Amino acid sequence: MAGVRVVELGGGVAAPFCARLLADQGAEVVKLERPGRGDPSRDCAPFATGRPHRDASTLFLALNTGKASVTLDLATTTGREIALELVRRADVVVSGWRPATAERIGLDDAALASANGRAVRVAVTNFGLRGPLRDARASELVLCAAGGLAYLTGEYEDPPTKLALNQCQYMGGAHAVVGALAALWHMEATGEGQCVEVSLQEVLAGLLQGKLSFYSYMGCVHRRQPRGRGGLQYALMPCADGWIAPMFVPGANVDWELFAAFLEVPELLDERFATRAGRLQHAAELDRLLVARLAERGKFEWFHTAQEWRLTFGVAQTPEELLACPHLDARGFWREQHHPVAGTMRMPARLFRSTEDPQLPARPAPRLGEHTAAVLGELGITTAETAALRAAAVA
Q: Is residue 137 part of a domain?
């Protein structure tokens, strides 16, 4: 994507993640931020410096590698006009604002299209640009609940549970990239720009298509699984030094006799456990036998032995183990990156790759307003004029 110019508006996680993935492929991304404060993620702990610093938030650093930071007060006429001039020169505009916010600032899709009809305008919102909830505020918890994922997550006896971290936002950003690239291809072929609208609620609801089909055609409502692990398809169990997923997947070239032989627990061959219905009915006793056996070995010993038997076992890796994962290390997943404020950090090198990956410089996330003078200079705004804009808190 060398030569593709991207302007990023708004904050959050989904839109910046979308723009970061474009930057990973060589796009020139200019991130517009509020003077003095910047993107809200700059205030999110933890901080690589060990204390709050707007240039050292690890969330911001992860979301914004490879970008340029330009500070503009978009609530002012001058700031908005400069932003629109950047839009006129852009190929892609990625926005993370709620529709009402974009309209109030004067940078909604109609204004962006008027400024540059060839541009691909990517609007990543909580509930879309239309509909009764279009301007509703939403946290990660609200999105997980509204999209239906929370109802399927957690323990059977507990309330619906939010997924860890900001997974809904990241999934939305990844979907936005797909739409942006398709629209960019269309623009390059026809000269026509368009709006790519991504609703985070719709992204999550779309992921549940398989579960929704059970309700639509069978009247079955899937929900959180019972504590009894007799199903052995979604279970994590304790072992000597952590947690292991000893999955038994019927039909995957595995039979119950092989599973019992691998574990060396002859009691598993009792007729009570011969069928899935029996294993669910006697889940408590099955659970007792499995937990007692798994406690005799460590999770990685179980995992590697299971691989030799071609069984589907999985290790629940801790953060420390994930950072030291030999598989990720062999693939070159991590890279050392130096930041002038945050210092040397270990970060993912690339979140997707191909045989023709561009050899891009490992450019760290920008300091707040680091590239304001350079980018405004490209618009013909002199150093003195930029200094005046900064003095007036416009830039």
A: yes
